[in-house]
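Lay summary. Proteins are chains of building blocks that fold into shapes, and those shapes determine what they do. In this project we predict the shape from the chain. Here is one chain we studied, written as its sequence of building blocks.
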Amino acid sequence: MKRIISTNAIELELSSTIKIHLVVNVSRVYIYKDQEEGQKKEWPLPVIIEKEKEYEIEKILNKKKFREKNR
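And here is the predicted shape, written in a compact code that computers can read:
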């Protein structure tokens, strides 16, 4: 958080690569809670095929529609 603008708005300090408006309503901001012990997911090691890292996908858990097309 960079500064408090009013009782309802704050200005965020973010990387220039993140393309969002820096002033947001306070209802959109939450206190960060660290994960409980045992919740951290260890990512599997990649399989190296032809000098490139690859991962095996078991199943797709969710999908997003963009302009009525599946992505």
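What the prediction tells us: The chain has a mean pLDDT of 83.
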